[in-house]
Design a protein that fits this description.
This is MarR family transcriptional regulator. By secondary structure, the chain is mainly α. It is built from 6 helices and 3 strands, in the order ααβααββαα.
Length: 143
């Protein structure tokens, strides 16, 4: 999906990491750099660099964190929201077009799988805040 949307939305104009940050900030405005890094499982200095690039292109702004004036929080600008909306529309067009070319059985199977996939995504997202098993045991995963 990521590569196919690039036909409409050039990679250079909005790298995927920036898309992911814009999506996150759209739903969780005012995150600190360290929070973005943790939620995206990235190094803080990498996130700081990406955020600075986004500030320079007008997609986000940094503002003092009202909870701690030494820290900054990151918020979408109107231009950032417009760029994200354009990217989402391009992505939705690509998915809709491909989905429409599938046969009915495949469309039904995908529709039936969506609740389970949403639950899986939610579990993966909430695991970011859970501490790993102190004994290093892996969870049993059967597919």
């Amino acid at each position: 999906m990521r590569s196919s949307v690039r036909e409409e939305f050039a990679w250079e104009s909005l790298p995927m990491a920036q898309v992911e940050f814009l999506q996150r900030l759209s739903s969780e405005s005012g995150l600190r750099i360290v929070e973005l890094a943790r939620k995206h499982r990235m190094a803080t200095n990498t996130v700081s660099t990406l955020v600075q690039q986004m500030v320079e292109t007008g997609l986000v702004v940094r503002s003092p964190d009202p909870r701690d004036r030494r820290a900054v929080q990151v918020e979408l600008t109107d231009a950032g929201r417009e760029r994200l909306d354009a990217w989402m529309r391009a992505n939705e067009r690509r998915i809709s077009s491909a989905f429409g070319r599938l046969d009915a059985d495949h469309r039904t199977a995908i529709g039936a799988a969506l609740p389970a996939l949403a639950a899986l995504a939610e579990l993966l997202d909430t695991e970011e805040t859970q501490a790993p098993d102190p004994k290093g045991r892996d969870r049993d995963l059967r597919i």
